[in-house]
Specification:
Two copies of one chain form a homodimer. Chain A has 365 residues and is of the alpha/beta class. Chain A has 13 helices and 14 strands. In chain A, the strands form four sheets. A seven-stranded mixed β-sheet of chain A has the order 2-10-9-8-5-3-4, with helices on both faces. The first copy, chain A, has a three-stranded antiparallel β-sheet with strand order 11-14-13, covered by helices on one side. A two-stranded parallel sheet of chain A has the order 1-12. At the A-B interface, α3, α4 and α10 of A face α3, α4 and α10 of B.
Amino acid sequence: MFAEKELLLVPGPTPIPPQVQRAMMRPIINHRCPAYEELFSGLQEKLKRLFAVTGEVFVFPASGTGALEAMVVNFLSPNEPVLMVSIGWFGDRFGEIAERFGADVTWLKLDWGTAATPEIVAEAMDKAPKPFKAVLLTHNETSTAVVNPVREIAKVVKERGASLLVDAVSGFAAMPLPMDEWQIDAVATASQKALMTPPGIGLVAVREEAWEAVERTQMPRYYWDFRLARKFQSHNQNPYTPPVTLLYGLDAALDMIFAEGAEAVFERHKRVRNLLRDGIRKMGLELFVPDDNIASCSLTAVKVPEGIHGGDLIRQLRNKYRIEVAGGQEHLRGKIIRISHMGYIHESDMLLTLEALRYAIKDLG
Amino acid sequence: MFAEKELLLVPGPTPIPPQVQRAMMRPIINHRCPAYEELFSGLQEKLKRLFAVTGEVFVFPASGTGALEAMVVNFLSPNEPVLMVSIGWFGDRFGEIAERFGADVTWLKLDWGTAATPEIVAEAMDKAPKPFKAVLLTHNETSTAVVNPVREIAKVVKERGASLLVDAVSGFAAMPLPMDEWQIDAVATASQKALMTPPGIGLVAVREEAWEAVERTQMPRYYWDFRLARKFQSHNQNPYTPPVTLLYGLDAALDMIFAEGAEAVFERHKRVRNLLRDGIRKMGLELFVPDDNIASCSLTAVKVPEGIHGGDLIRQLRNKYRIEVAGGQEHLRGKIIRISHMGYIHESDMLLTLEALRYAIKDLG
């Protein structure tokens, strides 16, 4: 039993819906022809609608890490003071990329499992000797399953005149993030999370008001150059070969999201999260993030019960129950498991997961 | 007639074989699990075999342009003198990327339609005031359908102690390029050319002897960092999410290449090229590159007959005969058409193409 049918619950890649799978089977086409331009025109329109942005959504053959690097080299200049608000492993990496490219990074590192607050960001900005040109922030911290209050933080960042660059790789399309309304200057995400498409597309949305900052940036860039991309995208083209089959998939995924309704998709993510969290609590297990107000709707971190190692639990879930979940990173290795529920995930998947988790823990004594 | 079934003959993306298509339909998996590590281990082995290299083959979610940028930022340092040997549009772009990142580029620009020679490269190297740290060379120039004598040029470059970085985006797997034997330090290519896989994978092979150069480079880098990639690839992992479904496809494509035999694949490309070139000549049309010795086996450029505009010929082939070919770039726009025959292309495709071309020209008077 439990052979063959696997349930993939890691925070990317996430399961691919049959509609997306089918779309990617369409014969490949020339990316310099009218049929491609029609596809890409529709795709840009749908993406702008989902990002809720007046501006541009840049589409790169890349992973989410590439999308982060693209924000860094298009918004920052060497030696420019920037604030990195990090609440976990992926925040640390975002800041590391900025440091590699010579930005003058001030770190606001908060405890893993907590969220940032507008007050703490305002304080860090106000006490800085030189005003920060930009604030780098994680929307959904995948290593801890915490979501930051981006709307409130954006307010204090914009009041202080800095650019706000948001890593929403694992949060976008799972939780609301309307860019224009919240005044977020740039948002990076990737295809293989809540966008339900295989990995290979990195996306960066830039709101119109932020474009000036891109024009004045001094970092060397070619592949990630938003100025070059904008020139091509304005006539529904790309500077170099786009990942055509993956774009077919993304286009179908966006159609699914709008057919369900973006708000309904966010509601479903919340419902699925609540169902899982309730079940975990009822089972007597402990949530790594007890506070529902900062608990991610993309994934949930569960403390591994005393006497069991996280690695064993992951292997038991994989090998016996065919459910693939993720472990903890750094000091959380072996101590938590992370169950993703972003994208093509529904209540039934969580019922199965809860039951399998109960069995697996029993198996391990 | 001629509805529905399209023949894609642009120099990337190229047609996807059913075997590759099927492989990409496999359910997606976690990239941090044993099943992925098994896939990636096999893939690395096959890639090293095809590049004929002792060293590393780095796999990026990227286009071919990304693979070129990766070579630049891992091999060059700001203000370092390098020689760009350009024989066309893609050579110009390779050099532009190096300039963007601050390399001190000396240009050896040759006429479009000609190939570089070892003598001319040796002369440029010998007369340089400061010795070049690296020579940047195109294997197959896609804009003109010319292949450079890489083996002979490598010899003079290595005798003079410079690194040799080769853009083989549209030549790799269509024509021989054994890295160790020819002493090529780095080769960049991409999935959507002779590798018969959809776009989205950028590849850079680095031979073992060249590793020292990578270690001393001063360019800022994170996404493209070979040092980071090598650390992860040594245990069959990647620093960030790889394009899993495309890697399934690439793995199947490599199996096809080795089943046919790499030498047999090169022979087929030559046979297909010869068949097309003979047919073009017999039809009374003119080849843009008359000399068979420098004519690419990946694609062929044909002069558009007097009185016809290239754009019209391309549209006629597309709309009536369902054959998609490429036009000329820059000053060759409207003057040539480029017919790709790399990857999953066989003699029958060229017979059809010749016949359709004959009809299309007749249609246009």
